[in-house]
Amino acid sequence: NAESCRTKILFNMRAFADTNASGQGLSCAGTLKDFNPEDAALTAANLAKDAITPRAWADGVYEILLGPAVAADIVQLIGMAASAFHVDSGLSFLINKLGKKVANEEFTLHDIGAVEGCLGNRTFDDEGTPTKDTAILQKGIMNRFLHNSTTSKKWKTQSTGNAGLIVPQPWNLIVEPGSHKFDELIQSIDKGIYITSNWYTRFQNYRSGDFSTVPRDATFLIENGKIKHPIMGARLSDNILRMLNSICGLTKDRKWIEWWEVSIPTLTPSMLIKNVPVTKA
């Protein structure tokens, strides 16, 4: 017999400065001492003010700077695709990728059952197996799938302690920090778009990893290393594996993200990705 308990508190704020000028702020924590709703509200308000009077832009290929809320959405797709059940059932873009390079070498992703300050603490999974620190991607290499007792037997390996009610699933996804400051990434961009939040991430093809998502709230055009003006009406359409291999910068700072678009607690930096197609919705 064993017992486990966990706590979490989530705050999601959307602020409007005008009909087409909104901003989102998030605060997620496993303890009250790490919970900062005031900062989330201030972030939402400032982004909304900065988004007033969006101006014209052209669809095309851009360097895309993903804020933590958007980066976390991409990261959770990787965590889900790493479930051995989804690999076996043909619903993963990581099929036949074990031991192969699938991302930039700066990208390392762990699933950790219990870690201080996280939101999804689990000391054991739904089969009673102790949870672990599992390196899903190690310096860009696909290192490990997530297993329960059934999939691990089929794969002739050990359970990773990720048994959910039906399929193996991640508990807390943690991306290792990068080497850049946020302002450094902005300054490195010649032609780019900064996305602070997104809705409606959908796959066109689970097996290949083709997907699209819609930037919402404050979104900004970047030119010659500076944020130029807000934009609206964008849609990002790309391939997860192509994006992972096109990462060209991660920030040192990371943020815990969980809200209705990101259901798996995720600690992630901001990400800069090159050559992303962006169209007008």
Strand content: 35-45%
SSE string, helices as H and strands as E: EEHEHHEEEHEHEEEEHEE
Largest sheet: spatial strand order: 3-8-9-11-13
Number of helices: 6
Please state the CA-atom Rg, rounded to the nearest Å: 19 Å
Shape: globular
- Helix content bin: 10-25%
Main sheet attributes: strand count, strand direction, barrel closure: 5 strands, mixed, barrel
Indicate the mean pLDDT: 96
Unreliable stretches (pLDDT < 50, length at least 5) are: none
Give the CA-CA distance, first to last residue. 53 Å
What oligomeric state is this? single chain
Structural class of the secondary structure composition?
Answer: alpha+beta
Number of strands: 13
Compact summary:
The chain has 281 residues and is α+β, with helices and mostly antiparallel strands.
Can you give a write-up of this model?
By secondary structure, this protein is of the alpha+beta class. The protein contains six helices and 13 strands. The protein has a five-stranded mixed β-barrel with strand order 3-8-9-11-13. A two-stranded antiparallel ribbon has the order 1-2. The protein starts with 8 loop residues before the first strand and ends with a strand.
Features:
281 residues; alpha+beta; 5-stranded mixed barrel; 13 strands; globular
List the helices and strands and how they pair.
Elements: E1 9-18, E2 21-29, H1 37-50, E3 60-66, H2 68-81, H3 84-88, E4 109-112, E5 133-138, E6 141-142, H4 149-154, E7 173-175, H5 182-187, E8 191-205, E9 210-223, E10 226-231, E11 234-239, H6 240-245, E12 247-259, E13 262-280
Parallel strand pairs: 3-8, 7-13
Antiparallel strand pairs: 1-2, 3-13, 4-5, 4-7, 5-6, 8-9, 9-10, 9-11, 11-13, 12-13
